[in-house]
Amino acid sequence: MSTLTKVALGVMGKLRPQPAKGDSTTSISLPPPETRGGLPLMEALARRHSSREFAPDALPLPLLSGLLWAAYGSNRTDGGRTAPSALNAQEIDLFVALPSGAYRYDAAAHELRLVAASDLRRVTGYQDFVDEAPMDLVYVADHARMRLVPAGQRESFASVAAGATAQNVYLFAAGNGLATVIRAWIDRAAIADALGLTHDQQVLLSQTVGYPKPVS
């Protein structure tokens, strides 16, 4: 679907998910992440960049496992995460839009839990490439976990946490031959409706991840 068509549907409030492709299993158990190796930090930073062309190939589970752990996984026995949050509110929920459905990443269990048995990739952004890329991440802030943060500052605090998580994805992508791009031009109301979010949950950003499109 073209960008202009998606924008028009968004204006009319008619941007909708597609039927799921494949089995929408209630949960996807992820293998333990590989937490050693990879590129040195400075090399990963040197390679970090945004890409807007993706191959449609799905990421194998071991690679997806490493990506999600790097993004926002639990890296300490006390439940601390790979990305910071003010007052350790851990207000960010990371949703994964796959062809088979939309899932929430459960860092404690290191697994994906189904929240919508539909293909939400089209809804996660106006750009045409999001429809065919294998995966789109959606960053959602749960304000109910931020009771100790003044209400007027919650969005900015959560946006910083989401940005740190998105940068983790960028560095993992750079170190593992993946392509990614963060996106703020999104229909937040359509995404929230598709994910069944509550009034306390706020859609902040989306991020497409996949293999780079082969050079023809």
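The record above closes out task 2.4. Task 2.5 opens with a second protein, given below.
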Amino acid sequence: MFDQPAPDLAASPAIPPDDEALLDAYSRAVIDVVDRVGPAVVRLDVKASGDRRHGGTGSGVIVAPDGLVLTNSHVVDGAARVNVSTVEGRSLVARVVGDDPDTDLALVRVDAPATLPAAPLGNSKLLRRGQLVIAIGNPLGFESTVTTGVVSALGRSLRARSGRLIDDVIQTDAALNPGNSGGPLVSSHGEVVGINTAVIMGAQGICFAVAANTASFVLGELVRHGRVRRAYIGVAAQQFTLSRRRRHAANLAQESAVMIATVEPGSPAERAGLMSGDIILALDGIAVTGADDLIRMLAGDKIGRTVEIEALHNGDRRMISLVPDERTHRG
């Protein structure tokens, strides 16, 4: 028995054929997304100026072929112009169309007439926990870096630099680092489902992206007005799935709504009697099925006029009238 050859402990076990096919399918999915969306991801460089002692670098994603680029507000950092570098090596100058510190989003437009590869914005409301997502960007200056992960959680809230809470934030474990900010979080279908915005330093695999539905709303406002004029009711809220029992008891058809996490003191919501734990079902008769719905409905035309909110309070449906204020940035 001592003459028999010892087993090769260093040799890796063979991958079962089924697992090998699965790994190949995963790789093909990621490669396909990177090939399609990668050319639309750009590097943004912001030069130092009198009011900014240091310049900065971040990422962005082209969302329209004529040169509209979505990125983070904290990347442009009050600049009027930025330099845009494409994957093909083109260097372009772009102006800042507008930025929205409340969602940490900004929009820039390339000055020169050009037709550029663009990535489509998807419907972030269709995301599910555990779904494959891909982050593309320029972490620490390493251009066109790709990382993968899953959607860890949905409906998170994240405090922006303006002091406001960004609602409907996506949590992912796709690795992000400084420089990834403003780059896209992409689904396996090749749609941008989020704009990467933040990491928790010192944590492993806790990263955040602003949902694409929120980004789509902000993009439209910035294109039309150069800023986002919002009505403010003073709640932090997240999407909430209504159980069958709760829907039956309240005679509801919709499957999801928005649960209030916190109510700001002195806000229109507090004055109207809304409380933490209340579930917002509709605003002015239109169903609210997610935080992005509420954000979109609280547009500038709601400021100063009475709106009707239908809510569940301790299981009972009730109508609440309130008058939204205009949301203002803290100084």
